[in-house]
Specification:
This protein is mainly β. The radius of gyration is 34 Å and the shape is elongated. A hairpin with a 2-residue loop joins strand 18 and strand 19. It contains three helices and 29 strands. It has a 29-stranded mixed sheet that branches.
Length: 489
Amino acid sequence: MTRARKVLKWGGITLGAILILIAISIFTYRSWFGFVLRPTVQRHGITFDKYEKLPNGRVVLSGVVQTNELFDLQIKRLESFAPDLWYRKAKRNGTNPITDYLQVNGWKLRVHPRAKSGTNAMPTDLSTYAEFKQAEKHIALIRQWLPKATLINGTIVYQDREYTFPVITWEKGKLDASGVWPVSAVPLEIKARLTGDSPYQVYYAMTPLDLRARVQLWETNNLLNMRLTGGYKETTINGNAEFEHEGVLPIRAKLNAPDFHLSPALLKLPGYQEITGNLTANWKTNSYALNLKAHAKPIASSSNFPPADIELIASGNTNQVRIERALSTAPGLKVTISEPLSLTYKGEMLSERSEVNLNIELEKLPWVKMSGRAEAKIVLEKGSKFPRAKVQASGTNLSGYNLSAERFAASGTVSWPEIERMDARLQFKNNSFVEISSSANLQTREIGKTEVRAEGQIATNLLPSGFKYSYLKLSALLSGAVRNFEHKV
């Protein structure tokens, strides 16, 4: 036998042996697949406790854990088709009823807070249209390779709040999830139609509260269109937007709540009937206009309350906002702006001057645990970085936080970062008083020359048990950094 024939003979034997080993490996891989799977998934940050084979070509993983910078995922039990059967079924996916490709029981997803980038600037290379097209491709792949899945007994944790989801189902692009809102424990439902037929739809509802919202997305005339419909009880909200191929913001958008009705309990306004009003907002070519009006009448048993009105008219663009008109006669807080006020979103004032007047009844403000009346006049003038503010304030019969004062008066000028001058006087009963005259730098946390004078019986109720005094007379000078005071008494 020649050398060439020997090479061909043994080469054929070796190739045949390799093919036989490959065939044996293919037909018996489910027996050893778990050993290969473990080191493979560990490269992607995934671990599991146990691998099991089930009849009908299915496998089970127990104690699955994945951890990365975006989220932590824990799964008690994950059941699916074996890879070869999964592949064959997905490739010949038809119209016949299908079995779950994936079943997950007992899962918990903890979403990590987004890391701060150190800048609030919007990336210039992002495109809403491009993101939609990319998502559309991913959804199509999921429909093809994961036609049906069921997730039960799950929890999503975000910002220390747990959203529980007893059942989530997915079948050929149709998503159906039922869950519970944290804190209030109100049931919620999320439905989505992502079948590839236009439009894509996502629906959200909290039926016990009569709260619902629907978002639809589709393409027409080379634009991405979005429509929002929703409402709360009798209130309806409608909106739409159009996106071109470039940019994050729409080229046109509208939002309308033409006749909204809100419960006074939502805004903590006891003694008032239903709050009614309208809201319109329009966006075009990177500029917007906003118009809000709201009104509430007092109920018959609270006829001493005045009607409550809020009006806000504003316009702006991506760099600044202009408040044309702002008026509030809500209980406890009356606000008026004498002249239009233009500001950048960083707080820099663009208009030359504006005046804000406040009239406050503290006991009617639910977020302030105080009582009494206060008035303030704030004159805003254009400054270098933030507006220069001249403040004059006064109050009577103030009480709260275990302190009470018959009268209060204050005036000052703030030109960031300097408090150029601040004078304040608190008058207590029996002619007791505290006077403060000060200046400060808010950026360096330094206090300028500060004079403090106090006379009489002040805050005796705050003294520890067994301590008392009959009369106090204090004159003090303070200055220096907050952590390094200099004082003279």
